[in-house]
Structures are given as C-alpha cells and as structure tokens.
C-alpha cells in the first residue's frame, strides 16, 4: 500500500531577465521560436522508428527491377541450378521447418483481457467529509490533535464526498469483527465477479486459474476458497491467495496469472483484487498511522484473462509487458510502509518519512527497465547519446528524460494519494489529461488499493477515449517496497461494459479539484 508521493530529482535551470527593444521590420520570423518543436520531435521519432523499413524499400525496388528483366532462358537456368543442388535445398528446407516448429511451440502464448469489472458499493455506505469527521469524534478514540490532523488530510487528499467505507465503520461506535470483515470481502468480491460473469457469459466452471490478492485480511479458509465455494468452481482449479503485498499486488496477480496461462493451455484465469478496511481501521493517535483512515475506501475488481486464440476477437486488450521492481533488500524500503502496534497496543499501518524518496527510487528502477521495452528507438538514442556525452566529456548537460507519451496513449497511475499523482505528472512530464483518470478515480472512489488502476481504465473507456492499438500503462506502488508496471494494447475501439463503476456519474466528470 502507498499513500505518499513519488519524488525524483530534476535539475533546475536558471533564467534571467533580458530587455529587448522590438522594432517593426520585414525580416523573416525566427523559426526557432515560431516552429512547434513538438512536431519536429514527432517527425524525428517517425524517421528513426521506420529507418529499417525505409532502408528496405530501395532493396526491394532493385530486386523487383532485376526480376522483371529476366527472360525464359534465365528462368530455365535457375531451375537447372536448383535441380543440381536438390540435396542442399532439402536440408535447408528441413532446417527451416524445424526452426519454425520450435519457434511456434516455444513462443509465449498471447494473454488476452476479455473483460473486467469494478465493484460500486451502495449509496448508504458513502462517507462524506462531515459524516466522517463526526463519526471519528463520536468514537471517543481520537484526541483533538488527531481529529484536526485527519481533517487537514481529508481537505488535501483529493477525495470527494461520495467515497465508501464498510458498514461496520458507519456504526457508532464502530463494530469491526471477523464476521463483518468477511461480509465486506464477500460483498466486494462477489459483487465484482457477478458483473464479470454476466458481461462475459463465461461459466464459473470454465475457470481454470484463480488469483486473489488482499493485503491486510487473510482469513482461513482463504479468500480464494470463499470464491471457489460461492461459485462451485471445479475441483482441479489452480487457486492462489496473495497477502501482504500492498497496493501493487494487482499487477503481481496479473503477472502470476500470465505465467500460469503459459503452462496451462486453452483456459481462463480470473484475477480478483481488493482490500479490506473493516478490521484494519486505526483507532489510535499516532499521526503516521492515521493517514490510511483518511485515504483508503471500499473497492475491488475482477479481471478475466484468456489464452484461447478464439477469444482475441471479443477481448478488449492484449497483455504486452509486466515489469516488477522490488526494493525489499533495503531495510529502509522494507519498513517504509509497515503494519505494527503503537505504544497503546493499537494496530495500524505506519508510513515512514522516507516513503517519498524510496518510492522515487523504485519508480526510477522500474522505468529504466521498462523504457527499452516500450520507448521508440528515437527516444532511446537520444537518452543514450546524452548519457555518453555526459560520461565521456563530463559535459554540464542535464540527462535526457525520455518522453513516455510517445510510448503510451493512456496512463493509469495508482490513486494512492494526491501527491503520488502530482509527482508522477511532474517527473514524467505528463499532461493534465494523462492523469485525469487517476485524479477522478481518487475523487470518486478514494484509494481502493490494488484495484484502483482498473477503476482508472474504466474511466478512460467510459469517456470513449480508448482506440484500437492504443497502449495503456498501469503503474502501482506497494509495501515491501515495490513498483510494478503492466502494459496493455487495445485490440479494438473499447467501450465501457454494462454495470461499470462510472455508469451513474461519468457525465459529471472531470470535476475541478480545489487545492
């Protein structure tokens, strides 16, 4: 789980004031000022990315001209030459067939995202600011300083008035219990799965792989067993339950399902991502442990993946890459998001003051690995050239920051908090529209942990912005400390599925969020 922002270091540049007296003249305009450099960069990107194709065009033209000039005698001589070298042709053909067979048998099987769903809680579970603060005061667990701290966090959080908290937290006093936690988990997971099965017409018995992730609630029997029992899944299902892996566990679950789909042919995998609030509300006065109360809200998602070739026609997306970064070997990173008891023995999740720097380091490592996989050659060359110049000549130039907008059309940044989105927008040089889905998800649903990236994707679809061959970057941060990325490619113009989380409110968004 991650509530802080991501901080990476950017070089600053000084600027001075220069007085210029402007005279009217007939001289040509300054093209460096008038030409939009964005289009120059796009042209350069197109040229470099298609360099191999452009080099092949003259070669193909030369071969075509030579073939067109051949007569019947030339063709007869070619046939005679092939007859005398029949053994060589057979050997080469056999090697070619063998190589193609090995390639087809060993190549990674494509993984398709058929559809997904997100849970939307009933209206009576909404927690507007006023009710949240009133209930916090009436519990009698928080002193005045803690109440004021929570009020300030809420005001700056980016959350709106329609986020949801579980039923047990609406009671005065709150009634957290194992039974209430199970009830919350069932409502969220079964609610998302019911929508998924209805929209896809897939029978629960057809599911071969099940992966469930929930960081803080891991009962016995497990959450995955609860789903098997509810939907009477088949006895040989490969089921997994991931716990304690934080807000980035949704991408980890997708990665695990992808690996399983490489092994087991012609089957479906379901990934369920959620977090449980009922038993993990903090009732103490330690400031670093109060932030999750203000940010985390009820939510969950269910994703249907397939390795069946016939599902490509109806699938929404194809999985392109998953890149995972784990900084747990470092003690500070390991403890920066840490579940523990305070001095009064009350359990909560503590956030370290080093969280921002640690998240920034994890992000840097992740995008350094992801960059060569997704960035166009033009961006890679620019980055490599500036790096070499800086190293060899000790030049005082800033390192080139790759433009990830050339690699991705849409960005789903984990809605862990307002600072997370602000820092990624700044450091990745994104435009407001690129982070709109993340900001609006945080406003409407709050931090729903590992499922937040699916609410964001649903927002993009509901706005009608997803086009065929668009690429989506889902990026999430989590305790451990981890930073994980998933890259998807749209297989068609994607429309929002029925019973989507934004169905009743998309026309009201985007909204202006006050500072």
UniProtKB/TrEMBL annotation:
The FAE domain, residue ranges: 103-392
Cleaved signal peptide residues: none
Keywords (A to Z) from UniProt: Acyltransferase, Membrane, Transferase, Transmembrane, Transmembrane helix
Pfam family, one: ACP_syn_III_C
Cellular component GO terms held in the UniProt record: membrane
UniProt-annotated location(s): Membrane
Biological processes annotated in GO: fatty acid biosynthetic process
Domain Beta-ketoacyl-[acyl-carrier-protein] synthase III C-terminal: 409-489
InterPro entries xref list: 3-ktacl-CoA_syn (IPR012392), ACP_syn_III_C (IPR013747), FAE1_typ3_polyketide_synth (IPR013601), Thiolase-like (IPR016039)
Pathway(s): Lipid metabolism; fatty acid biosynthesis
Record PANTHER family: 3-KETOACYL-COA SYNTHASE
Family recorded in the similarity comment: Belongs to the thiolase-like superfamily. Chalcone/stilbene synthases family.
Protein name: 3-ketoacyl-CoA synthase
